[in-house]
Amino acid sequence: MYSTILAPTDRAAAARFFRVLGDPTRLHILELLGEQERTVGELVSAVGQSQPRVSTHLACLRHCGFVDSERRGKEIVYRLALRGLDQIFAQADVALEPISKRLATCSRICPDWV
Asked: Mean pLDDT across the stretch 93-109?
């Protein structure tokens, strides 16, 4: 199934990669930016979270290299910087399909999201 064995440092980086993807709001932001670049205000409206919360998620995504930003006048526009997320999301849909009901009812990992 896996073609290589990850070294411990690679494993740590991979775990952080998936931890970034492990937040529903960050996933939503990435999906929206996969469609088109957006301003902070547009993202706040689309995800239904407060501006400080969205900005905190954007700071995480920017620091980790998932997105980049550009100032345009008074606004900051965000866009995806990391290629291949659409393929990861498509493969995740395939992988989670047989266990989606179990995942939806899981209370062992972050039950506050449910």
From this structure: 86
C-beta pairs of 49-52 under 8 Å, 24+ apart in sequence: 49/25
Tokens of residue 47, six digits: 């995800």
Could you give the CA distance from residue 64 to residue 12 in angstroms, rounded to a whole number? 13
Q: How far apart are CA 43 and CA 83, in angstroms?
A: 20
**Which pLDDT does position 4 carry in this prediction?**
63
Task: Give me the helices (H) in the chain, please.
Answer: 8-21, 24-35, 40-47, 51-63, 85-96, 100-104
Span 50-70, pLDDT tens digits: 999 999 999 999 999 999 999
User: In what side-by-side order are the strands of the sheet with 38-39?
Assistant: 38-39, 75-80, 67-72
Task: Give the tokens for residue 43.
Answer: 């993202």
Ranges 5-19, 32-46, 78-92: which has the least confidence: 5-19
Do 75 and 40 contact (CB within 8 A), yes or no?
yes
Under 8 Å between Cβ of 21 and 29: no
